[in-house]
Design goal:
Elements: H1 2-21, E1 33-42, E2 49-55, H2 57-74, E3 75-82, E4 86-95, E5 98-109, E6 113-122, E7 131-143, E8 153-155, E9 161-163, H3 167-171
Antiparallel strand pairs: 1-2, 1-7, 2-8, 3-4, 4-5, 5-6, 6-7, 8-9
Helix pairs in contact: 1-2
């Protein structure tokens, strides 16, 4: 369950950042400091989750740059457009043989708080049937990172901590196609 939560949180956030890299329109970097991200996913058995992410502009940019090659491999479409209230992203990606189409709307600002609402359709979910989900990420800036944190640290539920810069640890979280 924890692996699923971690995979969901990191892959979702990373793909959102990656779509900005592949487009002429770029999402702004978040204000440096500690961000709380509450993730609510409907249409899925994964529970709601709240995590904290210590970041700075270099870390946000590094996340985009490190995930961008993966997104280019698995996504046939990655569009970002500026709107009157924020941004809209549209992507079509295939992970472990499963196609996923996502439309996300981002409102708010990257200094104090923003909300990402994404609607996804998978051609086959865990049970082999199509799956539609809605994910809402409510992010708010809490202030400076805690003294024991460094940019890139993510504090997950239950106290599990990892740093997004430790890419080797993240490789095993991306599902791979099973051999026949």
């Amino acid at each position: 369950m924890m692996r699923g939560l971690l995979s969901f949180a990191i892959c979702g956030s990373a793909l959102l950042l990656a779509t900005a890299v592949a487009s002429a329109v770029e999402l702004p970097t978040r204000k440096a400091g500690l961000w709380e991200m509450k993730i609510v996913k409907t249409g899925s058995k994964l529970p709601d989750m709240t995590m904290q992410h210590c970041t700075d502009p270099a870390t946000d940019k590094d996340m985009s740059n490190s995930v961008s090659p993966l997104a280019k491999q698995i996504c046939s479409k990655q569009d970002v457009a500026k709107t009157a209230t924020g941004y809209v992203t549209d992507s079509v990606c295939t992970v472990a043989g499963t196609a996923m189409t996502t439309h996300a709307e981002i409102v708010g600002d990257f200094n104090s708080g923003y909300t990402v609402t994404s609607k996804s359709h998978m051609d086959k979910g865990p049970t082999g049937t199509p799956l539609d989900t809605v994910t809402t990420i409510e992010a708010k800036w809490l202030g400076d990172c805690k003294p024991d944190q460094k940019p890139g640290d993510i504090l997950m539920p239950g106290g599990f901590k990892l740093n997004v810069k430790d890419a080797e640890k993240l490789k095993g979280l991306v599902p791979t196609p099973k051999a026949n």
